[in-house]
Amino acid sequence: MTTITREQQKQILIDTANHVISRDNTSPYSENLREPARIALASLEAEPVGEFYEYKPGDWYQRSIGDKAPKVGAVICHSASSGIAG
């Protein structure tokens, strides 16, 4: 049994998405496959930019190093990629 690391999985997904995006229109579904591939690729390449915590409903603040706020309810936000709009 072969073990694939998380980094290898990510690279396989990136390579596959790039292949789908760059291939010719070989079927009526080609363009329908390209858009989800672009979105997936942008998602895989996004970097975390901050972690936010919901103090009470609708009241969020950004966590800092050393915050004592519980991790429950924390949300990690990622940068938007300009690669989404094809």
Considering the chains and any ligands shown, give keywords for the structure.
single chain; 86 residues; alpha+beta; 2 domains; 21% strand; disordered C terminus
How is this structure best described in words?
The protein has 86 residues and is an alpha+beta fold. The protein has 2 domains: 1-45; 46-86, no CATH class. It has helices spanning 6-22, 30-45, and strands spanning 48-56, 59-62, 74-78. The chain has a 3-stranded antiparallel sheet with strand order 2-1-3, with no helix packed on it. It is elongated. Mean pLDDT is 75; it is low at 82-86.
Topology at a glance:
Blueprint (H helix, E strand, L loop, with lengths): L5 H17 L7 H16 L2 E9 L2 E4 L11 E5 L8
Antiparallel strand pairs: 1-2, 1-3
Helix pairs in contact: 1-2
Number of domains: 2
**What do the pLDDT scores average to?**
75
Number of E strands: 3
Radius of gyration: 18 Å
Instruction: Tell me the helix content.
Output: 25-40%
**Gross geometry:** elongated
Low-confidence stretches: 82-86
- Order of helix and strand elements from N to C terminus: HHEEE
Structural class: alpha+beta
Strand order of the largest sheet: 2-1-3
Number of distinct helices? 2
- Measured distance between first and last alpha carbons: 38 Å
**Biggest beta sheet summary:** 3 strands, antiparallel
Report the sheet-strand fraction.
15-25%
